[in-house]
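[agent] plan:
  1. take the single chain provided in the ticket
  2. run structure prediction with default settings
  3. attach structure tokens to the ticket
  4. add a short note for the reviewer (M.T.)
[agent] executing step 1
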Amino acid sequence: MIDAYLVTVLTLMTVWSIVALGLNVITGLSGQFNLGIGVYMGTGAYVSAILTTQSGLSFWEAMPLAVGAASLMGLLTGLPALRVREDSLAVLTIGLVFVFESLLVYLPYFGGPVGISKIPRVALAGQQLGNEQFLLLALCGLAVASAICWYVKNSWLGLALESIREDEHATSVIGIYPARFKLYAFAIGGGLAGLGGVFYAHFMRFISPYDFGFMPSVYVLVMLVFGGIGTIRGAIFGAVVLTAVPELFRAVQEYRNLVNGVILILMMLYQPSGLLGRGSYLWSLFQRMSGSATLVRPAGVSDAQYP
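[agent] step 2 finished; step 3 output follows
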């Protein structure tokens, strides 16, 4: 039997890891700087909450619909994002998350500022899942999200997204249509964040517009930058550590914004790839210790000369 408080912290770590993986597809792989991941997480959470509390659907029926809605939201918000890049894109996504939060607050259908409560627990075979069973379910969701990210990263889609991230103009010259692949990234990343939102809603059993506003979106970005942007391990590591720290050190909870700001500044100055990102000190050290470091062939050295 695991302590109930530990189960709660582990479940939140898992939920935020899934959301961070969604942002990793959009920002880490395709290079689309997004400060509005809360829009997609909130879409998944609200759609699932409404379908289960007002339409009578079960969690299992509502989940695919909610993830699909979040993916569609990613696709739709990706359309205006095609017109802008870099700093302008970041500002645009900030505007999107403010619009989304305001709609949730002002429209009574979404519960207004008090949100939606009494979201049902997940049931399987007629039995409601306890918190430990829900944690296992969320871990399965994290495994699925990680597998999707791995597939995307190691497929032709991932190669195209990384090409766009490195040089969009050069990518278009070789016949890749950047707009199409950016929309793919928004749709996939939005769907993953929506999956995290579904788990969040049915675990907390109460959601409000402020759970998916600008600051939660920034927290997810900090998790990604801290762990290692562009990598699956970095997204999960950052979410786990930055969810655990405020719980382990209660004093940090009151200064969370200050701590996150300092982390962002330090990471950008000294380790912009994140603690476990490609080329980072810790990851390079781990590779050397495990003997898995990739040898880079120097320029001008032939295959016969290279070991």
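[agent] step 4 note for reviewer: The CA atoms of residues 101 and 159 lie 34 Å apart.
[agent] ticket updated
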